[in-house]
Structures are given as C-alpha cells and as structure tokens.
Amino acid sequence: MFSLETLVILVCVCIAYFAYRSSFQLRNPLPPGPKGLPLVGSALDVPEKFSWLKFREWSHQYGSFYSLNLFGKTMIIISSPKILSEFTEKRHLNYSERPKLPMAVDLVGYDETTVFMPTNLMWKEHRRNYSKLFGTRAAMEKFFEMEVLGARRMMRAILNDPTGLAGSIRHWTTSLSLKITYGYETKPGNDDLISLADTVLRQFTHTQKPGAFMVDLVPSLKYLPAWFPGSGFKRTAELYRNDFHEMMDVPFNMVQEQLKKGVAKQSFTTDLLSAEDYSADKSYALKTSAVTIYGAAADTTAGQYHGLLVLMMLYPEVRKKAQQELDRVVGPDRLPDYSDRDRLPYLEACISEAMRLHVVTPLGGMRAAAKDDIYDGFFIPKGTLIQPNIWQMAHDPEVYEDPMEYIPERWLVQNPPLHPHDGICFGSGRRICPGIVLAESTVFIGAAMFLSLFDIYAVEGSPKFFDQSENGILDGETICHPKPFKSGIKPRSAKAEALIKSIDHEL
Ligand code: HEM
Fold this sequence. Notes:
The protein is about 50% helix and about 5% strand. By secondary structure, it is of the alpha+beta class. The chain has one domain (about 30-505): CATH 1.10.630.10. The chain has a four-stranded mixed β-sheet. Strands 4-5 form a two-stranded antiparallel sheet. Strand 4 and strand 5 (about 380) form a beta hairpin. The longest helix is centred in the middle third of the chain and has 32 residues, at about 285-315. Protoporphyrin IX containing FE (HEM) binds near residues 130, 296, 360, 427 and 428.
C-alpha cells in the first residue's frame, strides 16, 4: 500500500501535470473551427458526398487552416498548398502516417497495401519497387508500349457500343494495371480477375465511407466476438479480408508458376522477381506492393480520363483545337504513340486543365499526427487527422482565373500557375503518389487515340456545363467520377473507322 506521503506527492504531481497541460492549451488552443454539438461535434454536418464543398464553405469563415471535432477526434482541414507543404514536407517526420481506421486497418488489414501502411521498412521497400519500375517516363514507356493494344481495344469497344463508355474505360484501366503488374492478359467483356479486383475495390471503398461502420466511431467495438449480436461488421471484415487476400495471392502465384515454366510475360512482378538483388525475404513486400497498384491506379485513372472526355464534349472548340494539332502531328494514316507526346503541347495542356478542373481525389490522402505539435501558435494533438482540401486548392480564384472554366490555354503561357501535379492532385512529401508518371502517360495515350479517331458531342439530354455541385455532373465520392451522361460519339472519318477496326485482325 502507498503511504500517505506518497499519495500526497502523487496527487500533487497529477494536479501539476493537468494544470500545466491546461495552461499550455490555453496558450496554444486548437485551430479555430465550428463548435458543433456535444459528443458528436461537427460530424453530422459533414455530408457523405461532396464534403469538400462543405469544407470550403467553413474555410470562408475560419480560414485555410481550421479544425473540426468529429466524435471527439480532431481533424484539421488545410486548403493552402503552402501550409500543406509545411506539414507534409517540412514536418514530414510527424505527418507521414495514415490514420488507423479500425474497420479498414485493424479488422480487414488494408495496411498490407502501400496506401495504409505505416512508414516502416516494408513501406520503403514498396516505394523503391515503384520508383525502380515506373518512376520515370522512360521506364514507364517501356511498359506502356506493350499496352498500346489495350488502348486500341478500348477504341474498338467504344465503336461497338458508344453508350457503354464508362464500362469500356474501367475495363481498359483495370486491364492495364493487371497487365503492367502481372503481365496478365484480360479477356474482353467478363474476366474473372477483373471481377475479383472490382469486388475488392468496391469493398475497400465501402470501408472508406465516413460512418459506414460503427466500429470506426467506437473503436473498442472491434474486441466484440463475431457471434455477439450487432457485430455483423466482423463477419463483413472477414469476407473483405478473404477477398483481398485472394486478390493478392491469385495473380502473384500465377506469375511465379509462369516464371518456373519459362512462359511469364514481362511485368512489374517478373522484373522484380528476376532482379539480381531479389531474395525470398522480399517476396511479401513485392506481393503487397503489386496488389496496391490495382487499387490505387485503375479507379483513379479511369475517373481522370472519363472527366477529360466529358470536358471534350462540353467544350467543342477545345476538342477541335486538340484534334487539329493531332491531325498536324500524327495525320490520318496511323495511331498516335508516345514518340508524339512532346509535339502535342495543346493536348498536354488539355490534360493538365482537366486534372485541375476535375479533381479525381478531391480530398487527397489523409495523414495523422504522430505526436503532439504546435503550428502557428495552435496545438495539434497526437493522432489529429490532417485533411487537405485539394479540390479547393485547384479551384482557388487567386491562383486560377475563372477557376470553374475549362481553359487549357492557361498552361501555355510563359509563367503558368501552379500545376496540379506539383503538390496538389497527387499529394506531396514522402507519401506523394508514386504513380504520377503512369497516370499521366495512361491519360495521354488514351486521349490522343480517342481524339484522333472519334468526335464526342452533346446531344439532347446531355449536360450543358461542368456543374460540380451536388446536383451536377459528378458522383461526389472519395474517388470522384462523372455520373453516366448522354453524348454522341462517332468515328471522325471512314479512315478512322477502318483504323479502329484493323484491330480485329490482331485479336
Ligand atoms: C489520376 C490518377 C491518380 C491520382 C489523382 C492519384 C492521387 C493520389 C493521391 C492524392 C495520393 C495520396 C498522396 C498523399 O498522401 O500525399 C495517392 C497515393 C498513392 N497512389 Fe496515386 N493517384 C493516381 C494514380 C495512381 C497510379 C497510376 C498508381 C500506380 C502505382 C498510384 C499509386 C499510389 C500509391 C501506391 C499511393 C500511396 C502512397 C503512400 O502512401 O506511400 N496512384 N495517389
């Protein structure tokens, strides 16, 4: 038992600690922000979709750095690239971790992927894998030349069924990631691996929806046994975990088998498995970095590309200018390829502007503070969620004149504004997206081919402008896609149609 004296000392130490902490917090309060309700804070005011618009609205009152209370958890919203880089670059040691979401991370185990992994040795190995194999344009183009056939297949699919545009785009980007990662050749139409990959991605997206699982709000629920009434989320987690592991193992084992038989096609996985410095202890890092590519690449790139085509429909004079450039550089007798890229500055500007106007990941990548910190006199407790509002940055009227308009010409002046791939749309700091080159190359080849071969134009019932409000043209999800929309799509000429159909001889 404690003596009375020890007890008195302990109580005094506790009082002194809490007094110090309160006076510290008085001197260094949390960043300003809406008060919210008791217990829930502002959680009920954050909409499930288009939350970036609500965050922007609050920023008009509280500035480009403010805080929210979400069920007792502090979230800081940042809508200035300068402040964001202070966190993600200058203070990267404290702000490179991802939040530990109980459902996604503790129960399903998505922290086996790069996106949710803590910044440990495994994560470094992942990042090395990516930069070795597609960190540069030259390295990437080696992979990509293999996949020109995939882009041509998409053109054929669009010609067959222009109304199925969204599906053709998804099929293309998914096939592309599976081909680049595993050398896997998907079947046109239904393909087992695409279906599995789609299921896993849908499940993953479900776990990212704020409030979808009670356990994310009350983390201690994760300790409930699976049979306990109300713990159905545990069975869901098990199902998601099994599918995720299947997605990780099936293609990886397939490549290993093919390598043994000497029939494997070149891919991210074969290159790393056959690298000189490969050893069996790297196998797990390789497998988990490979499975991440599908999850991180296919849906984002599809959303970006689809958005570009919507804009080409809404801005016919821009489309015609891009097509005139393609006609000059490529001509009608062949399909564009990577060697044309440097000679297509207007098309490149169209892609940059589409990336700025249609931000596919409007909230970027969330981070969590590893320990307590002070910024500009404000207290940032350990575990605080750091949420960039990328959408707002890319639509800042101080930086981009007429920010809601599609103006590719803004990128063709001597001193263009901050490019969306510089610290905005692909994140920044240690956890910056490693797929920038791959994403931009994919969108480039898809755009060059489509615009060489097809016209896309408004018809009755088509949207009239790029309305980004809740009732507009986008779905408002974390990875934001255009909603299905009506358009006319037809080959630009008989020659273009023949070029598209020429693929039939190669299948
Ligand atoms: C238009 C397409 C894409 C967009 C808009 C996009 C955007 C992003 C963003 C905003 C982040 C979070 C960065 C941060 O926290 O600062 C991220 C992370 C990531 N992206 Fe992408 N991405 C795209 C395509 C790709 C592709 C093609 C790959 C293929 C490798 C990829 C792989 C990843 C990975 C692995 C991470 C996690 C990095 C980490 O946490 O260390 N992404 N991406």
